[in-house]
Amino acid sequence: MTLFDAGARTMLRSIASAAAGLGGLRRIVLGHGHTDHRGAAPGLQVPVLCHPDEVQDAEGSGGFRYWPADLAGLPAPQRQIHRILHRLAWDGGPVKISGTVSEGDQIAGFRVIHLPGHAPGLIALWRESDRLALCTDCFYTLDMWGRDCPPHLPERIYNLDTEQARASLRKLAELEPAAAWPGHAHPVTGDVRGALLAAAEAS
To answer: Is the pTM of this model over 0.90?
Structure first.
């Protein structure tokens, strides 16, 4: 089987167990290389792929190279919590990339869509047959305290380029998904296009 994103390091045992029950893990495709999405990849010991623009971060800092020093810009309590979580719970460390995937490539019945902004090489997987989009962190449906909320762009401090992230969210919306699953929390269904366009326009 193919795993899209590798979650946090603390998810390693659960991912390995689920994969074993589905016939075994063959490869991982990273939606992007941030610490909480590459986290379990080193421990799963299978080939890891990502977009060419994401290799530097998957194999390197996990996003810290373009985030503010010490995550300055987050409120003080969140800054402290996030610094601890990145180090002790989310990140399994750099992962060697075995190959790359780009816009238009086919993976396990899905087409790769490049949606840069939150990360330079962020990708979604798009299945035309049922209009399903697996979107990693193109948008969130939870707030910075982990509470459910309407879809919104990721926080500016965690983005490489927030305006580019807006454009990517509009690109995703124009596919008119029937369901769009973010990397955290709940999917968007119903008027997905409208909800994503509203998120792209919000401040």
So the answer is: yes
Per domain, the residue ranges of the chain are 2-99, 104-201
Condensed to tens digits (0 to 9), the pLDDT of residues 131-174 reads 999 999 999 999 988 899 999 999 999 999 999 999 999 999 99
Coil, strand or helix at 30: coil
Which pair of tokens denotes residue 72? 């300055």
- Please state, as a whole number, how many other Cβ atoms lie within 10 Å of the Cβ of residue 70: 10
CATH 2.60.40.10 fits 104-201, yes or no: no
Is there a contact between 41 and 28 (Cβ–Cβ < 8 Å)? Answer: yes
Strand (E) positions, the chain?
2-4, 27-29, 48-50, 99-100, 106-107, 110-114, 123-127, 132-136, 140-142, 148-152, 179-182, 188-189
